[in-house]
Amino acid sequence: MDNIKINGIKTYAYHGALEAERVLGQYFITDIVMYLDLTEASGTDDLNATVHYGEAYQLVEAVIRSEPVNLIEHLAEKVSRTLFDRYDRILEMDITITKPSPPIDGSYENVSITLNRKRDN
Fold first, then answer.
1. Which part of the chain is the Dihydroneopterin aldolase/epimerase domain (predicted)?
2. Over the stretch 86-113, which tens digit does the pLDDT of each residue have?
3. Cβ atoms of residues 71 and 44 within 8 Å
4. pLDDT at 104
5. pLDDT in tens, 4-28
């Protein structure tokens, strides 16, 4: 299936289960893959036949900056609902949210979750 990707949306926000995360905040990196049929857009050069990725970026950033939540799993679910609500053309999506510096003692690059969601018929 065709897809549109928006990679590496870096947003400072205050999500997390620990008090320090909600007080100090941290960066969240969001990657989105939106699956849709791009046949019409590729043939007609019509922006209305696709997802405006600049607008989608702004929606994702607004969700990440919104009211704090405990879990990045829940945050990713909010992102998927927002994009499905706005764009009927999206059939499926993958949302990955990465915490580059979570408060975990140890040696690692980051932690992340990925949700795969399909449009309910």
1. 4-117
2. 999 999 999 999 999 888 889 999 999 9
3. no
4. 85
5. 999 999 999 999 999 999 999 999 9
Q: What is the CATH number of the domain that holds 57?
A: 3.30.1130.10
The total number of structural domains in the chain stands at 1
Q: 3-class SS at 73?
A: helix
13, 24, 27, 58, 115 from 84: Cα distances, Å = 23, 31, 24, 14, 14
AA identity, residue 66: S
Structure tokens at 91: 């059939």
Residue with tokens 């100090």: 24
* Burial degree of 23 (CB within 10 A; 0-12, 13-18, 19+): exposed
Other residues' Cβ atoms within 10 Å of the Cβ of residue 54? 8
Catalytic residues: 99
Question: DSSP alpha helices (H): ranges in 1-121?
Answer: 19-24, 39-44, 53-64, 72-86
Which residues pair with residue 99 across a beta bridge? Answer: 111
Kindly state the tokens that stand for 3.
């897809």
Range of the domain at 35: 3-118
pTM: 0.94
